[in-house]
Amino acid sequence: MQRRTLLKLGLAGGVALAAGAGLVALVQPAREGTRLTAPARAFYAAVARGVLGSLLPTEPAAQAALLEGHLQRLEQAIAGMPPSVQREIDELSTLAASAPGRLALIGLATPWDAASAAEVQSALHGLRHSRIALRQQVYQALRELTNAAFFADTATWALMGYAGQRHVPNIPPA
Fold first, then answer.
1. What is the reported pTM?
2. Is residue 85 part of a domain?
3. Left (φ > 0), alpha (ψ -120 to 50) or beta: where does 95 sit?
4. Which pLDDT belongs to residue 156?
5. Other beta carbons less than 10 A from residue 16's beta carbon
6. Residue 147's domain spans which residues?
7. Per the domain annotation, does 29 fall within a domain?
8. Residue 133: which pLDDT band, with cuts at 50, 70 and 90?
């Protein structure tokens, strides 16, 4: 294959992916107001299971409750960001929550709500070690959003062995 043909195919693929993402955004946006839609919630819950791994409880009801609190904090965190950042997160969330985006961008064939933590971790590993800078940026954004929202709740600190802030007595100067 000639270089020119390869470049044309790459450009056409990028345009098709962007058009598909735009169409998906019109049909099913990632957020309605400040609330994540059901597909975006499934996406972020799966990412949390993949990123947080063994920090999450193994008992299903306890894990579901913890993830629900996480998703609420994530919604609050996104709502508190500048509008331009919110739009970028919405675009990423919309694309990644869709089946074509999940497959093309993330590299995961299994739907988010059916994917195991190991499958999500493998997909995230692929993003992290990709030769494509955009995929690496997606990994960093997802990991940072997940960790920031999860550990914003002081009740989650104990899960990683952090007892919290220690009281430092006020010592008057001599």
1. 0.78
2. yes
3. alpha
4. 83
5. 12
6. 34-153
7. no
8. very high
Decide: 149 and 74 in contact? Cβ < 8 Å. Answer: yes
Report residue 32: phi and psi, to 5°. -120, 105
Domain count, the chain: 1
The partner residues of 35 in beta bridges, in order of sequence, read: 32
Residue 36 β-bridge partners: 31
Q: Can you read off the two tokens belonging to residue 43? A: 């996406």
Question: Do the domain assignments include residue 163?
Answer: no
Which SS3 state, helix, strand or coil, does residue 15 take? helix
- Residue 48 corresponds to which tokens in the numbers above? 């949390």
Q: Give Cα separations from 133 to 40, 67, 138 (angstroms).
A: 23, 29, 9
Using DSSP, state whether 146 is helix, strand or coil.
helix
Structure tokens at 92: 């990423």
d(CA 78, CA 90): 9
Q: Per the domain annotation, does 6 fall within a domain?
A: no
Q: How far is CA 44 from CA 15, 70, 74, 78, 160, in A?
A: 26, 9, 9, 12, 20
Question: What is the C-alpha to C-alpha distance for residues 105 and 17, in angstroms, rounded to an integer?
Answer: 9
Give per-residue pLDDT as tens, 7-62: 565 555 555 555 555 555 445 788 888 899 999 999 999 999 999 998 888 999 99
Residues across the chain: 174
Structure-token match 């195991």, residue found = 116
